[in-house]
Design brief:
Chain lengths: ~600, ~600
């Protein structure tokens, strides 16, 4: 038997008991005739005591142990003379009677502490050691708890968890698929799913009524900072529902998860149209912790002789209140430089300081105090506030101002830990016109239905009409992160076929790739819709962290490599032959 | 709003209420002035009534509806005059006031009933219709419930569910990997996991202590009858445990699952060594519902002049009691032919009928009644029983007798529905000597530890010694199906390295493929072990069904194809180029 208790379990009630514990040596301290060892496992840390006077040999042995050695000890629990109130087991210690080294350890390449001295690369290479660190281990445990509670809630609501296949069919739509060569079907490939979209719709056609799955999805993208080639979704679909039913169900799930896992009662879930989100925050995922809605100034800022504004399509700004009053000219200069970095690309940043009895602004010479008073009124600004104003081409300027707003939120300390502001963004356009490729893209995906009132316009309208179609598509945003999104789907063959037309599919392409789905719509497909939450992202947002990577036990790096196991790697020629494949270099070499 | 209630919900308490329901038309019947429609959803069937005298137009409309049309109706609940006691909603019906066709349906290619007229192929092509059939839908719902309860039990026992990666490293050990070409790392491949084995061990090194995951695994095998290229495991690992801890934990899980999902209180979980299982049942997964232990007859059957037995390595038999008494000579002849089919390959089948005052047997002329009495005593047979005896080379004969035993169990009706007999098979050999390839194979897998008492024999013994090593490896068998298996693992670098040696790895191969694991063992790896249950199989066994396919929403056929979506399929040349791959035919064509 390796243990009677774990390392987080012993309390005053155990004093006097003989116990056996196993765990890792976290730290040891020698004091004259005494040696103390902190022994750690997932559940906590327990202090062990060795006394030279009691057993000199045992104490000598204990003094030879290194960090991360795996030990089994037996001994008697006793009350500590100096208790450690920061530790659940801090009232007691174990006077060790016997000690066994279960496994030795080399010195770890970085410290196994909450704050470690290990850099990213070495932590990834020795991920199994990084995972011993409490903050990372707690992330993984939190993720597990969140999944359990998600399933509990959805199962209680009559959702059925159905596993959809991982080996599916490649479709050129959307992001790149990972493909899997088939040995038994030479020259053919499976694809790994980017989402179970078509399968969950088929489950609705099959009458499953309410489906969910916590499911791995795959995208072969050039990895940006916080993307992973494999990621996890809470994937859901419901039949006989309207948008309202779905919003209510997943608002319920979100409230439940926040409440049961981190003890947060979420407030309102306000709703905002996509158009309003762009107009007021320059983003379809605004962070509502910040405030600072955009105010348009065209009518009061143009035509006063300031050429930059006069020539701009849009003049728009935000008002920084409160803390902002402490922004010095130097701070503003730095902020301006930050906005001028190529990542953001603002030409400049105009400010107006609202001060006692007047304004301070570099554009003061173009605008009278009366002019600026009108600005201030539009913002509802008061003494001590600063207006920040950008101008230029409309879409670009809104994006830049959105970046500024977020940066100001950060600098002003408005993104408070434990403060969560959810938001539903609604009424997304159905289609997005892409000037470059001269074609429509699906704003959400090709299976999203137009709003009921837009159906006949979609079936009969002209090209321009298509740009104005709106969908019952919705995103859940929390603190500026997109947690999930979904839509009411098309369940009618004709409408689906029309949508593929609009997206530039030939009839043959649509049939070859999605014929099974359109076929299914002919056998009594119910009205249905759904949503998917990014599970990795949800974990990170609920924990107030910005990176998903430390919520994934074994993540890949930015080039898609697992540097711990060294994957991907080359495979045998036998394997390639069996798959009827050749590497390109190899076959060109053969031709030379 | 699509519905106020579902189709399985209405009872006498709802009589008089105005309700709205949506669902599929299961069946309709016209009787003079009345039309009845059974409307179906996942939750049940509700009877709708249309009356010509109330609303002629509506009734006419209802008479035009076809099977599987999707409808929304509103109406008033009333008590039925002739109640249907076989249906939960059978006390009531809805007098329909309004009807809307939400979607039409073509006539389905097979009937959507418990018993369908559709063959396998067509049911797979229209799997979304097959899934509407109650037995299949209930299988999928059962699977979901079983997963929920599995997670509940394990989470309550402090297990953490951790998602391990799907894109891992290919290793030539074991079955064939599915591989995934990496675009960002040209010429390199990921593999899909055959199991999360090394990752779950690393999680133990990481101190996660108790891990589980319900996880998709992948094997590129030539598919036998009831195999799938992707399948699901309940995968578990624990630290600081002995075999006993693991058996108890997963006996607990199994009891809990049977109890909560199908209301069965399982009896004992007897334990049997691998050697005993082969000796007594000729199989490492004996079905204990059957009885009929093997009895060896060498000492009483040889040397009496019957050349077949005299020249045999082993004479061994089973005794069929009770029902067996009804086996006519014709039945026995048929059974003999069944045994002589090439799949089994028995040369013949000797029987001895124990009758009032004597024996009947085709080998009677070689054996006196006194001889045969000794046989009967060995079996403990009584009047009315029949002994069935095989002979030949030992291993082959036991296998053949095992087949006969199972067939007799079937013919004698001993495999009763609702009767579940679990069994732990223990003490598997660590290594298996393969004459053909002249090398050892791991009986379980290369990470399985020898029993503690065998460690020094393994490190220091000679070749012959290796054949006698035993492992703390265990299988859970229920009703003759292997539900799961596992082992205590090696957690020591030297022992792991020795095991790779024995399995024929060079030092370089072992390091290249499993260096990360052996490296991890040097940083304080705890003693650990685990188990994995085949989840698809568990679903089928608990439901008393023999095929896993109908517990998988979207299964592949025997050539690994999904014939509904038509995958695998060819991919674009652009995709191949991006992956630096060529198809073999293509590149040879280019060379001609």
């Amino acid at each position: 038997m390796y243990r009677t208790h774990n390392c987080g379990e012993l309390r005053m009630t155990h004093v006097g008991q003989e116990v056996t514990l196993s765990g890792w040596l976290q730290a040891s301290r020698d004091f004259g005739s005494m040696t103390f060892i902190d022994m750690r496992d997932r559940y906590g840390i327990t202090q062990l005591v060795f006394n030279i006077e009691d057993d000199e040999g045992l104490c000598a042995e204990a003094r030879k142990l290194g960090r991360e050695f795996v030990l089994r000890i037996s001994g008697v629990v006793r009350e500590r003379s100096n208790k450690n109130e920061n530790r659940a087991t801090g009232d007691v210690e174990i006077v060790v009677k016997s000690l066994e080294i279960l496994n030795a350890s080399k010195t770890p390449p970085f410290t196994i502490d909450d704050e470690t001295d290990g850099g990213d690369e070495i932590r990834m290479k020795y991920r199994y050691l990084d995972l011993r660190r409490n903050p990372i281990q707690q992330n993984i445990i939190f993720r597990s708890k969140l999944a359990i509670e998600t399933r509990k809630y959805l199962a209680d609501q009559n959702f059925v968890e159905v596993e959809t296949p991982c080996l599916i069919k490649s479709t050129p739509e959307g992001a790149r698929d990972f493909v899997v060569p088939s040995r038994m079907n030479a020259g053919q490939f499976y694809a790994l799913p980017q989402s179970p979209q078509t399968f969950k719709q088929l489950l609705m056609v099959a009458g499953l009524d309410k489906y969910f799955q916590i499911v791995k999805c795959f995208r072969d993208e050039d990895l940006r900072a916080d993307r992973q080639p494999e990621f996890t979704q809470i994937d859901c679909e419901m039949s006989f529902v309207t948008q309202e039913d779905i919003l209510n169900t997943f608002e319920g799930l979100t409230r439940y998860l926040f409440n049961t896992t981190i003890g947060i009662e979420l407030g309102d879930f306000p709703r905002m149209s996509y158009d309003d989100a762009l107009r007021l925050y320059g983003s379809d995922k605004p962070d509502l912790r910040i405030g600072m809605e955009f105010v348009e100034l065209n009518d009061v800022a143009k035509g006063k002789g300031f050429p930059v504004f006069d020539s701009a399509e849009l003049v728009v700004g935000i008002c920084a209140s409160g803390e902002a009053a402490n922004f010095s000219n130097k701070d503003i200069k730095k902020l301006t430089e930050w906005m001028q970095r190529p990542q953001i690309g603002a030409k400049g940043l105009v400010y107006v300081k609202v001060e006692a009895g007047g304004f301070k602004s570099p554009v003061g010479k173009f605008y009278s105090d009366e002019d600026l008073t009108k600005w201030v009124e539009k913002f509802g600004a008061k003494e001590g506030d600063i207006l920040f104003i950008l101008s230029g081409e409309e879409e670009k300027t809104r994006k830049q101002l959105s970046e500024l707003r977020l940066e100001m939120g950060k600098r002003m300390g408005l993104m408070k830990e434990g403060d969560f502001k959810p938001l539903w963004v609604l009424d997304f356009p159905l289609l997005e016109w892409d000037e470059d490729s001269n074609r429509f893209h699906a704003m959400h995906h090709p299976f999203t239905a137009p709003k009921k009132d837009d159906v006949s316009r979609m079936l009969n309208g002209d090209h321009e009409t298509m740009k104005s179609l709106r969908a019952d598509a919705y995103d859940l945003v929390i603190n500026g992160s997109e947690i999930g999104g979904g839509s009411i789907r098309i369940h009618d063959r004709e409408l689906q076929s029309k949508n593929f037309d609009l997206l530039g599919f030939t009839k043959e392409e649509a049939e070859a790739q999605f014929g099974f789905l359109m076929g299914a719509f002919e056998f009594g497909a119910p009205p249905h819709g759904g949503i998917a939450f990014g599970f990795d992202r949800l974990c990170a947002v609920m924990s107030g962290q910005s990176s998903i990577r430390d919520f994934i036990a074994f993540p890949k790096n930015n080039t898609g490599r697992d540097i711990m196991i060294d994957a991907p790697s080359t495979i045998d020629n036998t394997q390639l032959d069996e798959l009827s494949l050749k590497l390109e270099e190899e076959s060109s070499a053969a031709k030379e």
